[in-house]
Each structure stands twice: as C-alpha cells, then as structure tokens.
Amino acid sequence: MDNIRIHTTQNVDIEYQLASIGDRILATLLDYLFFLAYFLLVVLIASLTSWALFDSMAIVSILVLPILFYDLICEVFFQGKSFGKMIMKIKVVMLDGTQANFGAYLLRWLLRIIDMRLFGGALALIAILINGKGQRIGDMAAGTTVIKMKQKVQLSDTIFNKLKPDYTLIFPEVSRLTDNDVAIIKEVMQVCIQSNNFGAIDKLVMKTKATMGVTSDLPHSQFLSAVIQDYNYLGNN
Q: SS3 for 79?
C-alpha cells in the first residue's frame, strides 16, 4: 500500500504508511472471531443458568447490541483501534494526523452499514482502491483514514527525557502552545527519528518559534526537546 503525506496543523508534512487492504480485511476477520467468541460465551453462560430467566428482548439485546456498537465503542475508547486493528497494528486517524474525535468515529460507524454490510464489503473495497488515501465512504465523510502504527519509540531512544527535580524553565512562552501542538511536535519528532528525515524538523522549529514568539540559537533537536520539557514542566506545576 502507498504512503499518505499528511499536512499537520503545524504546517509540517509527514508521511505515514497506509494500512493495506489485506491488513484491514484481516483486522475485520479477527473482529468477527471476537464476535463469535462473545456469542459462544453468552450461550454458554445462558445454558448454565437458564434461558427462561431472560425474555426475548433481553436475549436479543445481550447478543446483538454489543456487536452492533462494537466498532464505535472500540474506536472511541481505544483511540481508533478495534481489537482486530490492535492485532494488525493499524489505527484510524484524521487526515491531518491528529486523533479522530467522536463525531468522526460516529460517521464511520453509521456509514459502515453501506460500506460493509449492504454490499458485503465490496463497496468499501472499491472506494479504497479508487480513492488513493485508504478511505472507504465512511472515511471520506469523516475525514479519516487508516494507517499502520509505527513501532513505538522508547524515551531512552529519543531526545525526550524525564524532568529532573531541579529542572529550570527555559521558554515560558510554551504556554502559548496547546496540547495538540505539543502532541504533533512529539509525533513529528518520532517519525523523523525513525525515518532520518530532518527536513521536516527545520520547518517544525520555524513554525514553533513563530507560534511562541521566541528566538533561539539552540540546535533544532535541543530546542524542540526544551519546548516539550518546558510544556511538561508547566503542566506539572
């Protein structure tokens, strides 16, 4: 599958590898296995007690509702991942690289009926192949796509370290940044470290300095490290 170039809110372009159709199909099949396991568990519990304890509506609710809302609940609470997606190491993100919100997850879930149910997934497959951004109809409506999750970078492998007890604030102007700004800075830094792409870091530094209204002679990596540490410092004090 191709990569997708995402233009972040920090005006920095970073590339992610789109989840392949095979990855998405396998993730869906794995989710179906979870459905089957849940169904069998409910049947087992009911058989050990008594079906007579439940009326027909209760039985339908217990069996159907969790499966019906499965994708929506998982993506909301597991940040764009169902259990199948977790195993396949793929996730749903917004086209600007940020985490999707409830509205986006809801749109994807509602249109899944058209994408995945009415036409047995054929419509979703065609849309993904034609679109070029890894989007089924639900993704197009929600402004999302599905990407591969890169191997996590440990703190010891990056420039980000825990704050020392005697840490001194360097840039008070970090208060002008938002949680989303800092999250994007961390993400871009991790992607660049993994891909050895330092051109994006230069653009990120210029945008960050402009947003904060500061100048600095620190090397770019040290500057961004200081920004992240300062933001963490202010958040903890």
A: coil
